[in-house]
Amino acid sequence: MNATAHRPRAPAGPPETPETPRGGRRRTAKPRRGALPPKAQAEGVAGATLRVSTYNIHKGVLRDFIGLRRVTRIHELRTRLHELDSDLVFLQEVQGRHERHARRLEHWPDEPQDVFLARSPRLRQTFQTAYGRNASYLHGHHGNALLSRYPIVDLENRDISDHALEKRGVLHCVVKVDRHDVHCFVVHFGLLARSRERQLGALIDWVSHTVSVGAPLIIAGDFNDWRNQLSERLCREIGVIEVFDAVKPRFEFVQRAAWFARDRWPAIEVPEAAMPPGAPRMVRTARTFPSLVPWFRMDRIYQRGFRVNAARVLRGIEWARLSDHSPLVADLELVEPGA
User: How large is the average pLDDT for residues 35-50?
Assistant: First the structure.
């Protein structure tokens, strides 16, 4: 059964340019501490790089330091999202409407959060947006969203809820990157292990019947797979690779040590026959939850048809103030067929 999905929203009107201050000199913004480097590109590759991010934004609301009241974080979150310079942003727990927050919280946006987040505070850059409603209640609804700097030409949202108490969904968007159709799946799986297994099966079946084998594919979001039990099946059955598995470690001995530990720890051993041909062993998935002290491996970016040039998880107190998850960022190079 399909859940409610909103058609892509294009930015309204041309972007504005920042004003020049009195005296004729344009102020140059100082780079924020921990700012990301320019998009990584492989040597000898002429194609443009896509920067892809995934982030569970916790509906743009967190509790204060002592936990007594809710605080709006959506404005600062928007600023930080645009600083990432991402081309595709996969978002979970996006608030489409919340009448109680609108009445009780200061500076709550009048528009859905995906539309609010799509516009830069300085209006220099905008995204197209697609929103898929997952959970509806008397005072509002929330779901997944995709922000894209490229045209969103098609979308579908599916309800993959395993039981009535926990509403989950997957948003599928087709994004036109140059002449290529890139299939993007925004994922938010359940908290129960058996629920996640059934939801993964539904996702694999959907991808297998919808996306051709040679089409570029990105699956990203909050998998809640803290025990890393889903990756092996997902990689094997549809041929994707998690970005942290694909990127080369800074020091080779780190990779060798990780392989050594994995081979000698039966609790996490994966038979070689179960691995897809040419795929690296899965040992480097990022820790993203809780954001203040990330320990659990909740969020993932899987890809097919790309070269992974860089992957990182963004940590620190500035990000911990915005959500209970840390965002992931990856620079991907679209690989031409036969290259």
Answer: 64
The amino acid occupying position 39 is K
Across-strand partners of 170?
158, 187
* CA Rg value for the chain: 20
Q: Is a pLDDT exceeding 70 seen at residue 22?
A: no
Per-residue burial over 78-106, b if 16 or more Cβ lie within 10 Å, else e, is bebbbebbbbbbbbbbbbbbbeebeeebe
The C-alpha angle 81, 85, 86, rounded to 5 degrees, equals: 80
Measured distance CA(193)–CA(205) in Å, rounded? 19
Residue range 68-80: average pLDDT?
83
Instruction: Match 């500035």 to its residue by tokens.
Output: 318
Joined together, the tokens standing for residue 21 give: 């201050």
CB atoms within 10 A of CB 280: 18
Supply the pTM of this predicted model. 0.79
3-state SS string over 51-111? EEEEEECHHHEEECCCCCCEEECHHHHHHHHHHCCCCEEEEEEEEEEEHHHHHHCCCCCCC
Residue 77's nearest CA partner among 95, 104, 50 is 95
Q: Which residue has the higher pLDDT, 28 or 264?
A: 264
- 162 phi/psi in degrees, rounded to 5: -95, -20
Query: Does an H or E element contain 187, and which?
Result: strand 180-188
Tokens 């999905």, residue?
5
CB 317 within 8 A of CB 65: no
